Amino acid sequence: MTKIMGIETSCDETAIAIYDSENGIVAHQLYSQIALHGEYGGVVPELASRDHVRKIIPLVDAAIKEANIKPSDLSAIAYTQGPGLIGALLVGATIGKSLAYAWKLPSIGIHHLEGHLLAPMLEDKKPDYPFLALLVSGGHTLLVDVKELGSYEIIGESIDDAAGEAFDKTAKIMGLDYPGGPILAKLAEKGDDSQLRFPRPMTDRPGLDFSFSGLKTFAANKIAASDGSEQSKANIAKAFQNAVVDTLAIKCKRAIKQTNRKALVVAGGVSANLMLREKLAGLMNEMNGKVYYPRHEYCTDNGAMIAYAGYCHFEKGLNSSPCEEQENETQKEVHQIIVHPRWPMSQAFN
Ligand code: KG4
Ligand code: ZN
What domains sit in the chain, N to C, each tagged with a CATH number? Predict the structure, then answer.
């Protein structure tokens, strides 16, 4: 039986989980820093790092307890190696590698987006390889042709703001609290979209890339021209969300046609958006395919997806740092702690 601990600290969630090859996720601990950053209207990197330092060891202890195991029962420790905030990543990587050293285990550095991409594999209803993946998070919007585990071809991406970033920035312009995405989505439920239409950027030309930065300016102009009532705000939120969701769906349709894939995986924080889920379910139905999502708590940042990605690497023999006993002179350098704040997927997997 293989048991992998996953550590995620790339942004504002400290998360530890344990994946067990027979029983799935057997521990899932998460501490969100939302309240800490709320008063600043966005993530303050230095505060994020310090809070990870405070929380990470208690969460590791809690995960071990929740799984009812001893550290010696673990097979490896996986940690998010990038992309993300450098200080935040360094906390997870340092703890991950130190625990691995102390417990004589291999450590495995994981690409955060591979974690998101594989999160739907933790569900009973999961896709077979190959599949198309739409990764929509706060930092990235990517269309990825997933040929098999570890073989990821990026076929479309945002040339400016990511979808989640567009949600968050537009929410901020509208005076909504942090984190804006889910709050804007909630407000949109009360909106009436019969009067207002936002553009669907870059859909009038071929290609699979996205551009969302113009939508926040469009929203700012609509807000300035509105009467400022709650209903007007809700209408703008709904029209904005329609535009993002429609744009994502149009590009997914093109990508499905281009790749001929039958399964679409939608992952990353924005995959929690209900309207997006409904729209893509309808699209895949129309295209005789199926759509797959992680459950809600595995959509946004979490340790389970890192533990699972670590398990996949471990099974393939891809552990980035062997345990101490296997170490020889040339491998000494594996104890260096290396993180990649900017780490394009195309560089990580080629
Ligand atoms: O994947 P994630 O937790 O962190 C990153 O890796 O970036 O994604 C966070 C992003 C934020 O931009 C947040 O506003 C957005 O996901 N998000 C949503 C919803 N829930 C989270 N956006 C739209 N609708 C939602 N329901
Ligand atoms: Zn993420």
Answer: 3-117+299-347 (3.30.420.40), 128-293 (3.30.420.40)
Q: Ligand 1: does its nearest atom lie under 6 Å from the Cβ of 167?
A: yes
- How far apart are the CA of 317 and the centre of ligand 1, in A? 32
User: How far does the centroid of ligand 2 lie from the alpha carbon of residue 196, in Å?
Assistant: 31
**Residue 297 alpha carbon to ligand 1 centre in Å:** 11
Ligand 2 centroid–CA 235 distance in Å is 28
User: Which are the contacts of 36, defined by CB distance < 8 A and separation ≥ 6?
Assistant: 12, 47, 48, 51
pTM of the model: 0.94
Q: CB of 84 closer than 6 A to ligand 1?
A: no
Contacts of 208 (CB under 8 A, 6+ apart): 143, 155, 156, 251, 254, 255, 258
Report which protein residue has its CA nearest ligand 1's atom 10. 138
> pLDDT of 133-173, one tens digit each?
999 999 999 999 999 999 999 999 999 999 999 999 999 99
Would you say residue 258 has pLDDT above 90?
yes
Has residue 222 got a pLDDT over 60?
yes
In testing the pocket of ligand 1, which one of 300, 305, 306, 342 has its CB within 8 Å of the most ligand atoms? 300
Question: What is the average pLDDT across 319-342?
Answer: 66
Instruction: Give CA torsion, residues 148, 15, 331, 333, to 10 deg.
Output: 120
pLDDT confidence band for 195 (50 / 70 / 90): confident
The H or E element that residue 276 is part of is helix 274-286
